[in-house]
Amino acid sequence: MRTAAVTEEQQEIRRTLRELLAQRAGPAEIRAAVATPEGYDAGLWATLAGTLGLPAIALPEEYGGVARGPAALALACEETGRALAPSPLLATAVLVAPLIAALGTERQRAELLPRIADGSLTCALAVPGGSLPLALGLTGDNAAEPWAGGGRSGGVQATRPAGGEHWSLYGEAVHVLDGHSAGLLLVAAHAGGFPRSRTLLFLVRGAEGAAGLVRRRQPALDATRSQATIQLRDVPAELLGEETGEAPTVLAALAATGRTAAVALAAEAVGAARAALDHAVARLGAGERPGGPAGSLRAVEPRLAELLVQVESARSLTFCAALDGAEPEAGALALAQALEALRAAAAETARPHGGIGVTGEHDAQLYFKRAAADELLFGPAHRLRARAAERSGLFGEVA
């Protein structure tokens, strides 16, 4: 039976990253970071990328990466999730970099991936309709459901004059992670009109000064996951990959990215859940009792023990899903388990504080809001499980 043993190198990554985040990503530092225009601490990101090389972990060596694979990236995400540290790691290294590596031309890969690896270029994946989990194949078949809008209208449309060399994009995408600050946007858009409608991916470079592009940071339940509304009004764009690229290739690449992203997201949720549980245990150790003076420690201990089992089970599923040869559905199942573990641990952390535990006045709200927001952005858990069951053929023919 395969195990998800952590190597000595991975233990060192964990230790170094945990020490750094403990120093520079406490609750006060997080509140200061999310209040910046970027939504994260740019200095901390420079250290995470330039010194620790987090965005380079899973990238090929020929493009400045270190090729340590999804397990090492998941371990790093577990630590950033434990600290709830806002950063462009998820949007840049987990969502966009694999798509450029899979679909980009050699020129595009050689130009963009080394800059992603060293942290000098941040990216965002813009999906119309706010349907990121569907586009990634996590909650449905991205080839069968119209997540990107119709061929006639809706979503983002890509057009090019007959015989022209340049594409332009028109439409809107919402809930774009780090979309307001990313230096590069990767936009999913329809091309070909209604008769030959197909979904392709386009690069919008120099996003800050792109003509016709409007980006607005939007209010988010979880401020540590910055989101934006992206409006494109005949914005010049470059097709990702060769001109002969077909929609099935793009959709397959999105689904493959979804499988690895699910593992990274699950690792983040596991890290946050374990931190929330540690807070609850530490509070009891300091003499606090839920429910006031009548609260019973003996009544709380079994609940915390059950939570520990739930969190550690999610962690085991997550790192088994990160192993080479894992089943394609493993990532989505691990993410479902991790989201539920985070929700339960966050609720336990907030419980003794009543209503204040879910407001901005207490640190417990950070975990509570992360749990709720992740369910909205990447779930819900029952949809993740239903799609995994459908793909595996549990209810009949394999999808």
Automatic annotation (TrEMBL):
Family stated for the protein in its record: Belongs to the acyl-CoA dehydrogenase family.
Annotated Acyl-CoA dehydrogenase/oxidase N-terminal domain residues: 7-119
The Acyl-CoA dehydrogenase/oxidase C-terminal domain, residue ranges: 263-391
Transmembrane domains' residue ranges: none
Name of the protein this chain belongs to: Acyl-CoA dehydrogenase
Xref: Gene3D superfamilies: Acyl-CoA dehydrogenase/oxidase, N-terminal domain, Butyryl-CoA Dehydrogenase, subunit A, domain 2, Butyryl-CoA Dehydrogenase, subunit A, domain 3
Database matches in PANTHER family: ACYL-COA DEHYDROGENASE, ACYL-COA DEHYDROGENASE FADE28
Highest taxon above the source species: Bacteria
Cofactor(s), by name: FAD
Keywords: FAD, Flavoprotein, Oxidoreductase
InterPro entries to which the protein is assigned, alphabetical: Acyl-CoA_Oxase/DH_mid-dom_sf, AcylCo_DH-like_C, AcylCo_DH/oxidase_C, AcylCoA_DH/ox_N, AcylCoA_DH/ox_N_sf, AcylCoA_DH/oxidase_NM_dom_sf
Entry keyword Disulfide bond: no
GO MF entries: acyl-CoA dehydrogenase activity; flavin adenine dinucleotide binding
